[in-house]
Amino acid sequence: DTVLIGELYLDFERLCTYYGEDLDGCQLPFNFHLIMDPWRADVVARSIETYEAALPKGAWPNWVLGNHDNGRVASRFGAAQGRVAAMFLLTARGTPTIFQGDEIGLPSGVIPPDRVRDPQEKNEPGLPGHDRDIARTPMQWDASHFAGFSSVEPWLPLVPGHESCNVAVEAADPRSVLTLHRRLIALRRAHPALAIGDVMVLTGANDVLAYMRCRGDERFCIALNLGHEPREVALPEAAGGRIAVATGLDRDGEVVGDTLRLGPDEGVVIAVTG
């Protein structure tokens, strides 16, 4: 654990040097910790605090869930936990980066050997990290033959099940992964606390990550169960608040007491009163 803390500190310290001593370097050097580190409540909580401490004064943070070099979120974390990860990304302090397909819960592709396009995989097949084509399959817009991506066969195959996992289907589903993303983005845009507010970690234990976002009189508490079993967590900071969004899009308006019960792979955003 001590080694992990040290590694996190050094990684974030190195990352933050790219901003430059007087913010004269990169404006937004990518923070890939959500891709590299274990998806655990204690690790993510520690990452938030270490990152915030390492940032130069005036620097703006960012978080990245996926990119074109790694498997998609729904496959790395599982479909249910992918919703939790999306809730973190869109309520964390900093610019969120969503890789195409993650907003509809698109899993990694299945690439037959004769369809491989990635030069690394072609030159050194089977080596870890060289199967990057799995994240580069076409965006799936609708249930048509080529998923609305093109009128001819694309250079990489569609992900199996594109008839149901596509933008058109999910846009019409009030509880889809796409709807969850749209709800969270709308909430973030409407409330300065979620867009540019301060962050304070409340807990990162027993699979539960909880933190506050605050600006002026606005306060939001975000509680995320990064595990696959139900969890109960004491959150007096959120008492009296109401759930604004849940990952299942099924708890709107629920009043929160001193203790919050979270289902497996569930997260909630709580608008705190007072």
Summarize this entry quickly.
The protein contains nine helices and nine strands.
Structural descriptors:
alpha+beta
Your description of this structure?
This protein has 274 residues and is an alpha+beta fold. It has helices spanning 2-16, 33-36, 41-54, 73-76, 79-89, 119-123, 167-171, 177-190, 192-196, and strands at residues 62-64, 95-97, 198-205, 208-215, 218-225, 231-234, 242-246, 259-262, 267-271. Strands 3-4-5-9-7 form a five-stranded antiparallel beta sheet. It has a two-stranded parallel sheet with strand order 1-2. A hairpin with a 2-residue loop joins strand 3 (198-205) and strand 4 (208-215). Helix 1 packs across helix 3 (41-54). The longest helix has 15 residues, at 2-16. The protein starts with a helix and ends with a strand. Residues 1-9 have low confidence and may be disordered.
Blueprint of the fold:
Elements: H1 2-16, H2 33-36, H3 41-54, E1 62-64, H4 73-76, H5 79-89, E2 95-97, H6 119-123, H7 167-171, H8 177-190, H9 192-196, E3 198-205, E4 208-215, E5 218-225, E6 231-234, E7 242-246, E8 259-262, E9 267-271
Parallel strand pairs: 1-2
Antiparallel strand pairs: 3-4, 4-5, 5-9, 6-8, 7-9
Helix pairs in contact: 1-3
